[in-house]
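ok so dumb question maybe but i'm new to this and my supervisor (M.) told me to 'just get the structure for RRM domain-containing protein' and walked off. so i did the thing. is this what she meant?? sequence i used:
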Amino acid sequence: MWFADVYDPLLAGALDGSAGAPHDAAIQRAQCSHYKPPKHVSTDPLKTLYVGRLNFDTTEASLEQHFKLYGDIVSVTIIRNLGKSFTGCSEGYGFVTFERTRSAEKAYSQANHSVLDNHMILVDYERARVMSGWIPRRLGGGIGGRKESGQLRFGGRDKPFRWPIRRDTVEIRPEQRRDDTVFLKYVSETHEPRSQPSA
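this is what came out, is it supposed to look like this??
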């Protein structure tokens, strides 16, 4: 399994992973925030997958049914609105923890963009307990999202970093260049071009 080991909201806010001035208020909020993952969660983060874009009517039972194809499941949780305006309604995402790492890897590679309850879901690794400096979306951080929301973040499976326009001025750490399924090799622009065959 691969994941970036450090989260930086400023880098996540840029398509090419380059640091610059914060371009939205949420990034500024994230830079001033400190997040501690909940201590009551005892599942193994390396065997836990984030499942996003769920139908608001999806239940834990249907989520488990969808993922048990990939291996034995330890727990399934759908995040619900339990704040001040307690509704108990789904927030549209959840977590699935497998008994084995291999099962989580299989689900990661095969279940992404599958359809559950008429919604194409997003499957990625859990970030909160494995990335140092993680800031969730509600505090201005996170990854993914939509341009229309005004809080688009990069560096995850759904919205990976892209190569910078000016490669000579920006360094992208190797762990930010790819996800599990893609490997990009940077060839220096000073590299000798291949010779053209003569006619």
